[in-house]
Amino acid sequence: MISIKGLSKLYKTKHQDVKAVDNVSLDIKKGEIYGVIGYSGAGKSTFIRLINRLEEPSNGEVLINDTNITGLSVGKLRKERQKIGMIFQHFNLLWSRTVYDNIAFPLEIAGVPSRERRDTVLELIELVGLKGREQAYPSQLSGGQKQRVGIARALANDPDVLLCDEATSALDPETTDDILDLLVSINEKLNLTIIMITHEMHVIQKICHRVAVMDQGKVVEHGDVLDVFVKPQSKTAKRFVQQLSPLEHKQDTLHRFITKDENSEVVKLHFIGNDAKRALITDVIKRFDIEVNILQGSISPTQEGAYGTLYVELKGAANTIQETTQYIRTSGVEVEVIRDVT
Amino acid sequence: MLREWFPNVNMEDMWTATYETLYMTIISVIGTLILGIILGLLLFLTEKNNLWQNRFLNSITAAVVNIFRAIPFIILILLLFPFTDFLMGTIRGPNAALPALIIGAAPFYARLVEIAFKEVDKGVIEAAKSMGAKTHTIIFKVLLPESMPALISGLTVTAIALISYTAMAGVIGAGGLGDLAYMKGFQRRDNDVVFACTVFIVVIVFIFQFIGDALSRKLDKR
């Protein structure tokens, strides 16, 4: 669906050249919600603007449905942009227009006659849940409502792709969840491909299918959200995963349970998908002559299923502990024996 | 009582002069609005990193604007005599004052227009671009409506400056309240005429300010 190859953006300043986006290659499938996460300055905002050429790429290609965006003339690019919706952190609504007229704006640009515009606009207002607010001005709306207008506006020309630039970063946590729910429902209803730029791991966890982690203009890690959650490889990804559940990763509290005693072992269990719902601990205690001391744990729901971690201390004979971890492994739950705190 | 206080004021002259002042002001405001917006757009769009980025055109426009803004109005009228004569076929009366009024005020308004455009949220322009808007759509459907309150209040300030310009133009025979105050009042030492003209001009200024403020407030939905 979307294929990005070797995309780069170079800013030339007097003293040095800055690579805001550095040789990024990604493939995004139709109907997927693809997250791009990074700290500010990682180049993610520039990256999303390269996709619809609000910023001109220095190098590389963007293909959407086999159309080479990077090769289009200015006129053709304008036409193509009508099929690429975009929403923004600060909503970017026209204050001088009502909700209705803001949503009608992209239709005016596309040259849709005003009678046909009306039906589309009313339908979209219904879809984003703003019925009754048609004649309100943006200044009369809350942040969440403004972003709903932004979403309706981005969907007006029935796009193939929706680009979200920090779409929830200016909203409070509750409103963020409402907007994310709306995006998921649109994704499912319209089979719309969504590319989501954010610095909040929470957003990725809640709605994305796949994720790319950006740092200093490069994609340092990408894959299924669950995989990145369970086994973050890069330092940046690890920091983001920690951001989500700080308690879980505060391993220094585990310190006093970790001893040289071979009859006690601290292990970290990863539950993925349906495993997260199983009563594994009960099972283990029944099967083996072993004591299980639960230290800490958490469970996080993601688009692809739940993902949980649990730290436990196993107490028993050394070989029983061996057998137990072996058993847990064969039952599909990942076990990590923790010997030292880092 | 009015007769006693203003023995030399002829009401018929006053109304004719008021009409001339209003005529000069309104026509020159319209001219200034059109020319000022064009110049302001040119200044704004040719700036660095903007839609028509063009250093050469930007410098030329800025130079023209700065030069005409620097010339004192009374001197500008004198300088423009040949041009006015060519354009209007006369150098006397309200019509003859129009070229100088517009050329004097438009560069000033152009700068206000440029500032108003700069205040428009860059994100909104970016959003319009992301929807595939052409430059003229961005100008007419984003830049102008989004900066309208500032354009109106800028025009109000300019209109009031223009009222005082018309009085100055009056001194060299353009007609209007300034002409009346100078010729019939100052020259003949009839101070009551000067005073009456002043009151009329102040009232006109107040009316313009009131209309401008009301309009700007009504249009501002922020």
UniProtKB/TrEMBL annotation, chain A:
InterPro entries: AAA+_ATPase, ABC_transporter-like_ATP-bd, ABC_transporter-like_CS, ACT-like_dom_sf, MetN_ABC, MetN_ABC_transporter-like, NIL_domain, P-loop_NTPase. PROSITE patterns: ABC_TRANSPORTER_1, ABC_TRANSPORTER_2. Keywords: Amino-acid transport, ATP-binding, Cell membrane, Membrane, Nucleotide-binding, Translocase, Transport. CDD domains: ABC_MetN_methionine_transporter. One of its GO terms (cellular component) is plasma membrane. Belongs to the ABC transporter superfamily. This is Methionine ABC transporter ATP-binding protein. It comes from Filobacillus milosensis.
From TrEMBL, chain B:
Residues 18-212 form the ABC transmembrane type-1 domain. GO terms for cellular component: plasma membrane. One of its GO terms (biological process) is D-methionine transmembrane transport. It comes from the Bacteria. It is a multi-pass membrane protein. The keyword Kinase does not apply. The keyword Transport applies. The chain crosses the membrane at residues 22-44, 56-84, 150-173, 193-212. It is found in: Cell membrane. Keywords: Cell membrane, Membrane, Transmembrane, Transmembrane helix, Transport. PANTHER family: ABC TRANSPORTER PERMEASE (PTHR30450), D-METHIONINE TRANSPORT SYSTEM PERMEASE PROTEIN METI-RELATED (PTHR30450:SF1). Belongs to the binding-protein-dependent transport system permease family. CysTW subfamily. This is ABC transporter permease. It comes from Filobacillus milosensis. The lineage of its organism: Bacteria, Bacillati, Bacillota, Bacilli, Bacillales.
